[in-house]
């Protein structure tokens, strides 16, 4: 068994194993402590563990600056701090395009605090313009600019474009106050006070872990993208183009969403306006369009499920106006996450719901390539579901499971494309083999010009009907018949040169047996049904051929009484034809030996002197073949026969599991009774009872 066949025969097991692996991995929560809310005392955050990622949302105090005129000197006056209110007391979200002052108070009480003086304060990207006031290690106030719209080269601390980062110095046991002033310039995207604080060691550790995992994930997608492009270059399969587009957009979206794109090209592209990297979020639309086009092309859904094919085509093209609208909204709203998600999220949900709804109809088609799509959609849906549940049911929210689902899906789809490529190679090999075989056949038939033209005509006719199997089988029967004709002609030529009458008769008998099978194959390839033979026409041609072989046409009358609709399968017709050949030959050679004026082997000279009857009829569940003549009958001393023909008839009757009897009354009548288990007179299958043997036409017994 080849590797491809082994995989094909066991792909259900691989799919089950992969789903089980994904489920087990999905049940694991990424290691690392969760964000912590330390004990609050009057809004002060007490830092007690250097390994925590402190969430400060409940320790932030906010002072609205509607006029935008308050300065740090104003805020620092003893009379103004009373204007700060805890952020959690604001019943409505903060407004966009308005300035807000904020205050955070923390106390560094971690064990060995002297070793953990440097901390990193992280502001969400909702703050597009931001200025933070903190004390340095000498106790002097300093101001740092930050914000999502501020270029990295203007930030004092920017190891990554992820968020707005401020490095703080927190002396042990002292309360440290941090002021900040900022606003959000994005429409419908107010600033958020979800601010985090962690030691620099933990920050760099988490950043390194995120960079490594993102690099592995993006590197995997890039590797699969390169593989698909290489395979497309050699195979020119459109499915690889769509899937490569999907992978490319996944890479771009993953790099943009992790701010790796800004980190890599921030100094060269959009250096003065880093917010413009938000345009790359539109890659999700191109990715989904490529994804849908891949499913349509790979599964050949337009043929398997035409209605779904039209729906998926419409859904694919729907992404184009949404992409343009998304770009317009991004520009007009200053890259508001909220407004952008109102466009992209419904399209993402519609795409996934449509793909999930397709699974059952696709499964019912029993298309093997469809099973790969079913498995791929299933695993990425499970990953997305677990990631969604992690936001609600078991935080913290993580896209680890979604990435795991994407990896599994990419692997499954890549296996599906490899499977398709293997099938195409096999189809090409079959086509090449058929082409080589056709060339060999044409070379072999080069000397038979007439036959070749006839074959070409038949080949053209059968090609129009798209019946390649029937053409091949007819060609086999035709060649067998030709070969048998060649053998028959050789026997005839050999018999001409023989002087010994016994040898000559043996040659003629052999020739008649070969011709019998040749006629059968001729009927098979000339008829409309390649599995059965019309017995009436077959026996008629057989008697004509025997009359010609022995030169008795016009001297012996052959009467055929066979139902016109009677057709037998080839396994029954071959031995039956040989039996009929032997019985008719015996009648020709011996039935009229007592007549006066014989000519060569006992054949009468007078025209119409003899009659040979060939009959077939159904008796109960069995069929009866009878060959009779009006000759002198069989002599007593030769009953049972001792020659080769007699032995051949006996063996053939035994092969048919039939019974043989002879009626020697006014000529010799030989009857063969047999049961047909496959084809009856109407061309239908029949099954006779095993213990039932109906009576035959005449009394006497076998």
From TrEMBL:
Membrane-spanning segments: 215-233, 240-257, 277-299, 311-331, 343-363, 370-394, 400-419
GO molecular function: kinase activity
Source species, domain of life: Bacteria
EC number, UniProt record: 2.7.13.3
Keywords assigned by UniProt, alphabetized: ATP-binding, Kinase, Membrane, Nucleotide-binding, Phosphoprotein, Transferase, Transmembrane, Transmembrane helix
Region (Disordered): 679-702
Gene3D superfamilies: 2.60.40.2380, Histidine kinase-like ATPase, C-terminal domain (3.30.565.10), PAS domain (3.30.450.20)
Histidine kinase/HSP90-like ATPase domain span: 571-680
UniProt feature, compositional bias: Polar residues: 683-694
Catalysed reaction equations from the record: ATP + protein L-histidine = ADP + protein N-phospho-L-histidine
Pfam family of the protein (one): 7TMR-DISMED2
InterPro entries: 7TMR_DISM_rcpt_extracell_dom1, 7TMR_DISM_rcpt_extracell_dom2, HATPase_C_sf, HATPase_dom, Sig_transdc_His_kin_sub2_dim/P
Entry protein name: histidine kinase
Organism: Neolewinella antarctica
């Amino acid at each position: 068994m080849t590797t491809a066949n082994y995989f094909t025969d066991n792909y259900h097991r691989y799919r089950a194993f992969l789903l089980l692996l994904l489920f087990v991995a999905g049940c694991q929560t990424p290691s690392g402590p969760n964000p912590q809310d330390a004990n609050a005392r009057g809004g002060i955050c007490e830092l007690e563990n250097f390994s925590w990622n402190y969430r400060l949302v409940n320790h932030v105090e906010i002072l609205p600056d509607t006029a935008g005129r308050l300065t740090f000197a104003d805020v620092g006056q003893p009379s103004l701090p009373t204007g700060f209110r805890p952020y959690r007391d604001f019943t409505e979200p903060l407004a966009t395009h308005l300035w807000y002052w904020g205050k955070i108070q923390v106390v560094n009480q971690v064990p060995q605090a002297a070793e953990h003086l440097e901390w990193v304060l992280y502001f969400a990207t909702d703050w597009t313009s931001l200025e933070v006031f903190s004390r340095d290690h000498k106790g002097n106030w300093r101001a740092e600019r930050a914000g999502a719209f501020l270029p990295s080269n203007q930030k004092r601390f920017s190891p990554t474009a992820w968020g707005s980062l401020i490095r703080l110095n927190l002396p042990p046991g002292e309360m440290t106050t941090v002021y900040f002033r900022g606003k959000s310039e994005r429409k419908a995207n107010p600033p958020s006070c979800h601010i985090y604080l962690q030691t620099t060691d933990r920050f760099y550790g988490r950043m390194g872990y995120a960079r490594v995992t993102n690099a592995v994930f993006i590197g995997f997608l890039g590797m699969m993208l390169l593989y698909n492009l290489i395979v497309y270059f050699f195979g020119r399969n459109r499915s690889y183009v769509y899937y490569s587009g999907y992978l490319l957009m996944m890479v771009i979206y993953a790099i943009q969403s992790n701010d790796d794109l800004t980190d890599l090209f921030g100094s060269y592209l959009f250096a003065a306006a880093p917010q413009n990297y938000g345009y790359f979020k539109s890659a999700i639309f191109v990715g989904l369009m490529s994804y849908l086009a891949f499913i349509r092309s790979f599964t050949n859904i337009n043929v398997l499920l035409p209605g779904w094919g039209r729906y998926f085509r419409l859904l694919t093209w729907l992404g184009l106006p949404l992409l343009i609208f998304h770009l317009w909204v991004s520009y007009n709203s200053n890259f508001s996450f909220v407004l952008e998600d109102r466009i992209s999220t419904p399209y993402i949900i519609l795409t996934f719901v449509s793909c999930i709804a397709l699974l059952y109809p696709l499964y019912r088609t029993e298309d093997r390539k469809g099973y790969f799509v079913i498995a791929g959609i299933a695993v990425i849906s499970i990953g997305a579901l677990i990631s969604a549940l992690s936001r609600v049911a078991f935080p913290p929210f993580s896209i680890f499971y979604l990435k795991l689902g994407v990896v599994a899906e990419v692997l499954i789809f890549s296996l599906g494309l490899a499977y398709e490529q293997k099938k195409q190679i096999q189809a090409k090999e079959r086509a090449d083999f058929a082409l080589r075989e056709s060339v060999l056949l044409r070379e072999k038939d080069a000397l038979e010009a007439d036959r070749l033209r006839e074959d070409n005509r038949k080949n053209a006719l059968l090609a129009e009907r798209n019946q390649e199997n029937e053409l091949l089988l007819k060609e086999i029967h035709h060649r067998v018949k030709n070969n048998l004709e060649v053998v028959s002609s050789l026997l005839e030529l050999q018999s001409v040169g023989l002087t010994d009458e016994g040898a000559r008769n043996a040659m003629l008998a052999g020739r008649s047996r070969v011709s019998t099978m040749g006629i059968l194959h001729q009927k098979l390839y000339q008829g409309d049904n390649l599995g059965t033979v019309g017995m009436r026409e077959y026996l008629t041609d057989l008697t004509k051929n025997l009359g010609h072989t022995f030169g008795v046409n016009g001297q012996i009358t052959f009467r055929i009484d066979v139902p016109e609709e009677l057709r037998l399968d080839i396994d029954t017709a071959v031995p039956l034809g040989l039996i009929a050949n032997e019985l008719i030959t015996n009648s020709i050679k011996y039935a009229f030996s007592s007549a006066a004026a014989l000519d060569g082997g006992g054949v009468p000279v007078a025209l119409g002197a003899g009659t040979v009857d060939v009959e077939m009829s159904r008796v109960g569940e069995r069929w009866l073949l009878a060959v009779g003549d009006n000759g002198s009958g069989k002599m007593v001393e030769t009953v049972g026969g001792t020659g080769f023909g007699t032995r051949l008839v006996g063996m053939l009757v035994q092969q048919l599991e039939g019974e043989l009897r002879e009626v020697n009354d006014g000529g010799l009548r030989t009857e063969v009774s047999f049961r047909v288990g496959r084809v009856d007179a109407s061309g239908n299958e029949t099954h006779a009872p095993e213990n039932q043997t109906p009576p035959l036409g005449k009394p006497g017994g076998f």
